[in-house]
Amino acid sequence: MKYVRLGNTGTLVSVIALGTMTFGERNSWKLGGVPVEEASKMVNRAYDAGVNLFDTADVYDGGRAEEILGESVKPFRDEVILATKVRGKTGTGINDQGLSRYHITRAIKESLRRLDTDRVDLYQFHGWDSITPIEESIDVMQDMIDEGLVIYPGISNFSAWQMAITQSLALNKGYSRYVSAQMNYSLLNRDIEHEVLPFLSYAEMSLLVWSPLQGGLLSGKYTDLNSPPKGTRLGDTGRVFPYFEKDQYPAILEKINTISAEQGVTAAQISLAWLINRGSIVLIGARTLEQLEDNLNAVNVKLTPEQVKELEEVSAQREMYPNWMIKNQNYRNMTN
Ligand SMILES: NC(=O)c1ccc[n+]([C@@H]2O[C@H](COP(=O)([O-])OP(=O)(O)OC[C@H]3O[C@@H](n4cnc5c(N)ncnc54)[C@H](OP(=O)(O)O)[C@@H]3O)[C@@H](O)[C@H]2O)c1
To which H or E segment does residue 54 belong? Predict the structure, then answer.
């Protein structure tokens, strides 16, 4: 396993982290329904492979994923970084959601109870809340840090301007720095390269990638997206998520398959290796132990510069304005 700093902190985290969205017998989102025994084996296997970052959320299988993760990591709780999230709908009440002080204050208690722990190591806003002033959310986050309930604050699914004001306000108030952003990123969706990645680099924040295989599509197992087999995410949910440009899919997949044959590894490993190669921490998801094993091995894949170039050419997106104009205007080079 390889380890990198979490944001600009002194805490080291594995470049492969385990996501738990497939955990939970209720299988409420039809993403896997992995029962506790199997999930525990996955957590143990990941830990044995050197994974020390485990991600969940209060909304995964109605909180069951947090319970399963908490139970599974118990023997090595203090050797791992437990990450969870708040914002999604956790109940039927009108205030059982969002980033208000009222909701977060209750949500952290529930997450701690389900995880059966005294602290959340990385507590992430699961998305922007358009009605709660961000000042209210960062104030309560800091209170939880001061109380020892949270170690590091993080965010997820924010746009770059939302990240920028969150971080600036926090730093101006003398609060803890937000250490990470959890975002969708893959060879099928490179949107965050336009604005988010430059900001993360500027702010010294880590990128935690969610759905790095774009829900399994980049494992190369689907031959026809219109008739996916049962027992797969696409077959069971009937929904392509996260979104991507379908036109690009065949060419990207063909390139991944060519490179996986060259390397003698799987398509999933090539897709994950590309992300790791770019400095991401990837949150792998798995329905089975075999998939987990496959994905863990991505850390050993070394893409050649030529292979990286080919993958990036075939998956390239149009450069957005004003980025191309900023480059045009960047005439001040140091070698003049
Ligand atoms: N912050 C957010 O808003 C957000 C959103 C989504 C996810 N997340 C986090 O990101 C984690 C990973 O997301 P994800 O589960 O969507 O990741 P993903 O890697 O894009 O998709 C995982 C799914 O792909 C299939 N798969 C995985 N490895 C495979 C392999 N080697 N060969 C064939 N199929 C394979 C499995 O589905 P099937 O076998 O069922 O087809 C598996 O459940 C989550 O657990 C969660 O922690 C966060």
Answer: strand 53-55
Q: Out of 21, 123, 180, 290, give the residue to mutate to test ligand 1, the one with the largest number of ligand atoms within 8 Å of its CB.
A: 21
Q: Give the start-to-end residue ranges of the domains of the chain.
A: 3-329
The residues facing 21 across adjacent strands are none
The domain 3-329: what is its CATH number?
3.20.20.100
pTM: 0.97
d(C-alpha 314, C-alpha 252), whole Å: 6
From the list 60, 178, 185, 249, the catalytic residue is: 60
Per-residue pLDDT of 206-250, as tens digits, reads 999 999 999 999 999 998 889 999 999 999 999 988 988 888 999
- Kindly report, residue by residue over 81-92, the tens digit of the pLDDT: 999 999 999 999
Annotation says 175 is catalytic: no
Q: Which atom of ligand 1 is nearest to the CA of 290?
A: 31
- Give the C-alpha distances (Å, rounded to integers) separating 17 from 37, 163, 213, 244, 272: 20, 22, 14, 23, 12
Pocket test for ligand 1, best of 61, 129, 185, 210 (most atoms within 8 A of CB): 210
